[in-house]
Amino acid sequence: MAQNLRYRNTDGYDWEAFRSNLRSLMEAHGYTGKDLALASGLAPTTVTRYLTERTPDVTALWRICDTFDVSMDWLVGRETSRYANLPDNIKRMADLYSVATKEDRDVIDLILKKYAG
Fold first, then answer.
1. Who's near 113: CB < 8 A, 6+ residues apart?
2. Can you tell me the distance from the alpha carbon of 5 to that of 21, in angstroms, rounded to the nearest whole number?
3. Structure pTM?
């Protein structure tokens, strides 16, 4: 029983936004918990616990943010857009791209390559 206490949220912060955003990122990228663990260097059981009960430390948050290229403020729910520092039209495009299917992203990437030079 004492071992489970270390995973309880004792900081008073509502971590559900983090869990929801993490699930959303994983789904958008087609990642399982194991995929995220491999990409971020976290243990698969740790990723599973982050999705249900455990509060991540700063290092884990950085790893997840780097893996998905999002801000920490967005990941933990302090910012409503993952792309807060970008112009509005670019934010919208990025938000839509992030929920596009892999096939649609491939088409978009092909079009962007045309203009990349």
1. none
2. 24
3. 0.66
**Whole-number Cα distances in Å, 85 to 2, 47, 73, 117:** 43, 28, 12, 25
Please give the residue that has the higher pLDDT: either 32 or 69.
Answer: 32
Query: pLDDT tens, 79-91?
Result: 877 766 678 888 7
Task: Name the superfamily (CATH) of residues 2-82.
Answer: lambda repressor-like DNA-binding domains (1.10.260.40)
What's the pLDDT tens digit per position in 34-61? 999 999 999 999 999 999 988 899 999 9
CA distances in angstroms from 77 to 20, 72, 73, 107, 112, listed in the order given: 9, 8, 6, 31, 30
Are 55 and 47 in contact, with CB atoms under 8 Å apart?
no
**What residues does each domain of the chain span?**
2-82, 86-117
The reported pLDDT for the residue numbered 95 is 80
